[in-house]
Amino acid sequence: MRSSPEYCPVCGAANAPGATICIACGTALSPAAPSWLPQEHPASDDATTEPLLPDSSVSNPGKPSLPTDSEKTITQPLPSFHLLQGRYRLLGQVGEGGMGKVYRAEDTHLGNRLVAIKEMSARGLSPQEYAEVTQGFQREALLLAQLNHPNLPHIYEQFSEGDRWYLVMDFIDGETLEERLAKSPGGQLPVQEVLQLGIHLATVLSYLHTRQPPIIFRDLKPTNIMLSRDGRLYLIDFGIARLFKPGQSKDTIPFGSSGYAAPEQYGRAQTTPQADMYSLGATLHHILSGSDPSQSPFVFAPLHLAGYDGLEALIRQMVETDRAKRPATMEEIRRELEQLAAPQSAPSSGAIVAPPAPRSTRQPASPRTTLARVPSRSRLPRPSAQGCVIGGVLILFIALIPLSMTLLSSAFTAGPSVAAAPTATPTPLPTNTPTPLPTATDTPGPSPTPVPFVNGAGEYLVDAGTGQALYSSHIHTRLPIASTTKIMTAILAIEDGGDLSQIVPITSDELAEVPNGASISYLQAGDDNITLLYLLYGLMLKSGSDAAIVIAHQVAGSTADFVAMMNAKAQSLGLKDTHFTSPHGATQDSRHYSSVADLVTLARYAMKNPTFAQIVRTEHFELPAQTNRHAYSWDNTNQLLSTYSGADGIKTGSLPDWFCIVFSATRNGRTLIGAELGAPTPDLLYSDATRMLDKGFGS
């Protein structure tokens, strides 16, 4: 009897040594181990065409079972305060695995901001191993450099020193989901917390799957999920991620982590986005059950989630061994998880009781703390007329009790009676809050991982009067800013454009400069009765990139000269993390960026100009038709103006899967200005801005 498991050649399930029937699908097992198993899979002839970085949990094809001398070679960690590239000062090692280490460091060229530096050592590797791991390491850098998502770390640069490669990226201050589970009772998390984690994971995986070509993560598991201290979730370790290649029948080499990897990842077929669905299902099952799937791959015990049958059914579908039976897309999974997490989907029997908010927050308890235990599908019998009469008498009797007690009290006491203060009826929390309260447990344990307060790649909120920071996250990270660029365009036009009532001609050459797909205010060439002020309304309300081009030509003579003015203005305002390449921001240009800190500084400056402030607080602007001028009607893209009390500007922006806002609101004479870049959806963008403002005005 062999000591290694019997792997099913059909579904890939790990069976007990010597088993003759697969426990997962019932297929008869042959005495010989299948040739497609990771530990016995020969290196493919085309291994050099798609080198992949091996994961520590997967055997290396063709590698001897006993360690060689080269494997015994241990790369010593670099000492603290070592200066890499004459720039990055190491503060200590924070992780190790596979063939490298991860260091915490500070960037001495950018205000000593914290970064993580991933090191890969090539010491002791054979030429083939060296080619595989170095190219895999470079592929991880190239993949991440092309991605912009709030749940992915940002890559700053890669370089090598000697026989070591380095990747500089965001430092995530937090813990892995695996570490979080180790602190939780039974290694489990509450259902509502799992739903929120699942929604964020499905969102970022959907983003990867909808790239062209699609990116398959291939190694989703608790150790590759980071939870920051402010509740943000990150996917880490893209070492084995791959681009999906249409027409390719199978992967070059099998990769994944035992228990979380789909059967097709063992080399029998090319991995598709459905492989990530399987891994997500396995991960959700793990954190709900506390059962590590690596202990019994392809076997998932029933969860018995009272009131959450839909969740268990979804997970069952996600971990189908036949990938054709899994959900069609990750977006479909995200939508279903959101429906399950919605307040109305809470079970009506076996009520989940959530802890009340602390007294210091002065928030009423959620209505979910009083869910009835009435079965959801049963109908109460209709009361009879006699029952209604008896009930009415009882209610009248109960209502008279306080009055009779007051009269008795006044008869037997010398002092005047004091009426009890009326009991305040708690106001229910908004039903659209994206952060459900965690499920209470009988066993005391660590506090649940906070659901992200915000969902963007960077956020900042300040008191406009004092400059005091009220909320901050990744405030100096350089990020795409989309149409928030037009804040600078507008303030330059107001300050340097001369008379705002001057007529500005609209030419076809100017309109031809507008990028395809950019938002426009529908300016018509030949209109010669439009003033510079009118163009500013089209620029800031409708987010007209055509207006931006026309303004640039009017103020500076050309777009290029106007962009130079924008960068000079940014420098004069001390915007150190800002660079412009266009007056509209409508294209994805890596040289066009800013940070939330710089945008807030710019917004504070611009909002002091009364003309600018009047334009950005306007919700709708009509320009009637006249001789030689078409009619124009522009609605402000900033939804906060109509949904948040006190909102008074200033600008939104978007790129594919990347939504931005710079906002301002005033209450009781106090103005707050903030920014968020990189929210994955408009709904999350506006809910984040609302939460930040509520937090700021409550401080």
Overall strand count: 20
The coarse silhouette is globular
Radius of gyration: 30 Å
Helix content: 25-40%
Strand-residue fraction?
A: 15-25%
What is the typical, i.e. mean, pLDDT?
A: 75
Separation of the first and last Cα atoms:
68 Å
Helix/strand-derived class? alpha+beta
Uncertain segments: 10-14, 31-73, 240-254, 344-390, 393-397, 399-451
Within the largest sheet, what's the order of strands? 3-4-5-6-8-7
Count of helical segments? 17
Biggest sheet: strands, sense, closure?
A: 6 strands, antiparallel
Describe this structure in words.
By secondary structure, the protein is α+β, with helices and mostly antiparallel strands. It is 30% helix and 16% strand. It has 17 helices and 20 strands. The strands form 6 sheets. A 6-stranded antiparallel beta sheet has the order 3-4-5-6-8-7, covered by helices on one side. A 5-stranded antiparallel beta sheet has the order 15-14-20-19-18, with helices on both faces. A hairpin with a 2-residue loop joins strand 7 (155-161) and strand 8. Helix 5 (273-289) packs across helix 6 (309-318), helix 9 (486-496) packs antiparallel against helix 11 (532-540) and helix 11 (532-540) packs antiparallel against helix 12 (545-556). It is globular. The chain starts with 5 loop residues before the first strand and ends with a helix. Mean pLDDT is 75; it is low at 10-14, 31-73, 240-254, 344-390, 393-397 and 399-451.
